[in-house]
Amino acid sequence: MEKIRSTTVLAVQHNGEIAIGADGQATMGNTVAKNNVKKIRKLLDGKVVTGFAGSTADAFSLLDRFEEKLNAYGGNMKRGAIELAKDWRTDRYLRKLEAMLITASKEEILVVSGTGDVLEPENGVAAIGSGSMYAQAAAIALKKHAPQLTAEEIVREALNIAADICIYTNHNLIVEKL
């Protein structure tokens, strides 16, 4: 079975705004399987936006569990993410899931992984997926050298730069602002 690779997800906090975006590519081996996968989801009536990379079925399982945690903790994103990471690390079923999440609210960005990590980026830029390092480097440079750009503009430009470099990332972008 060929490994399915998919996506680049990027979140940026800049000038009091937060934007999160992702490309739409899913690749199976050396073939593009789909160009328009939607990897960004709104939770809690749009108060929290989440992007995922990795196995789609696994990511949806995690998104469902994360939404349950958000509801259980009154919409507290950080607490919900920590509780999800604890379950993900200790639950035998969840431990096998192969995906990562970036989640954002108006106040913060978090990266949640299956190794129990809940990371808040210190520079206001978080990225996951195949082209993550390209998108992250571009976003950090844009924040530093083009401070007049909005968070949404930085996300779009950085994802386009990643798509120009990474064969697992395309230009079919979905970007949400908070």
UniProtKB/TrEMBL annotation:
Na(+) binds at residues 163, 166, 169. Allosterically activated by HslU binding. GO terms for biological process: proteolysis. The active site is at residue 7. The keyword Cytoplasm applies. Keywords: Allosteric enzyme, Cytoplasm, Hydrolase, Metal-binding, Protease, Sodium, Threonine protease. This is ATP-dependent protease subunit HslV.
